[in-house]
Write a structure and sequence with these properties.
- With 203 residues, the chain is an alpha/beta fold.
- It folds into two domains: 5-16 and 95-202, Rossmann fold (3-Layer(aba) Sandwich), CATH 3.40.50.1000; 18-92.
- The chain is 51% helix and 13% strand.
- It is built from nine helices and five strands.
- The protein has helices at 18-27, 33-46, 51-62, 71-92, 99-106, 120-129, 146-157, 171-179, 196-202, and strands at 5-8, 111-119, 138-142, 164-168, 183-186.
- It has a five-stranded parallel sheet with strand order 3-2-1-4-5.
- Strand 4, helix 8 (171-179) and strand 5 (183-186) form a beta-alpha-beta unit.
- The longest helix is centred in the middle third of the chain and has 22 residues, at 71-92.
- The chain is elongated and about 50 Å long.
Length: 203
């Protein structure tokens, strides 16, 4: 069955921002061996989680209890600084090859959505800045959970799982599709979004 709705991940799927997001965590802390190792260890296991979860785990690993501000205040300050770094870069970083051309074409045939771990407000800001808002019915960022987002979209569109396709580069995308029994197409560095229509018809 051909899908009626396509739900795209954003970072690493439509824009080439994964390295940008990864490096931004290191910009928030002193550049010494201790901080770098803690950050690397956290990102090795939690990279696909929200920035709040990642930063909280980094702070836990650094044992910053001697900080003059509360942990919640420090977490919020770091999250705001991280947001500034990432939003600025995500507005102008390269798109994944063929992304805009592909979503422009696909939006004439399918209902398109975005589901991301980027917080909801900056996600919409980035999409709007890039001139892509008109291609999508809606976008969902943190604190929305990806599996729950697919449930909401299915209900909103009045479709069943077979009519929804998830396209993404992460395990969270695969997992959310699996939990909802939706079809999934994995994006990697060799994947060309221009081939998506062919994949939809041939897989």
């Amino acid at each position: 069955m051909e899908p009626r709705v396509i739900v795209f991940d954003f970072d690493g799927t439509l824009i080439d921002s994964n390295r940008l997001k990864y490096d931004a965590y290191f910009e928030l802390f002193p550049k010494d061996k201790l901080h770098s190792q803690v950050i690397k260890n956290v990102l090795a296991t939690k990279y696909e989680e929200s920035r709040f979860s990642i930063l909280a785990e980094i702070l836990h690993g650094l044992e910053t209890k001697e900080s003059p501000v509360s942990q919640d205040q420090l977490l919020n300050e770091l999250a705001n600084r991280y947001n500034d770094l990432v939003v600025s870069g995500a507005k102008t970083c390269p798109e994944m090859p063929g992304a805009e051309k592909s979503i422009k074409h696909l939006s004439t045939r399918y209902r398109l959505y975005v589901s991301s771990t980027t917080p909801d407000t900056p996600l919409k800001e980035i999409i709007d800045h890039r001139g892509w808002a008109g291609y999508f019915v809606d976008s969902f960022g943190y604190p929305h959970k990806k599996a729950r987002t697919l449930q909401l979209i299915k209900k909103q569109e009045g479709i069943d799982s077979a009519e929804l396709l998830v396209v993404g580069d992460g395990e969270s995308d695969r997992k959310s599709a699996g939990e909802n029994r939706c079809r999934f197409i994995h994006v990697n560095r060799d994947f060309r979004l221009e081939t998506l229509c062919t994949r939809i018809n041939n897989d």
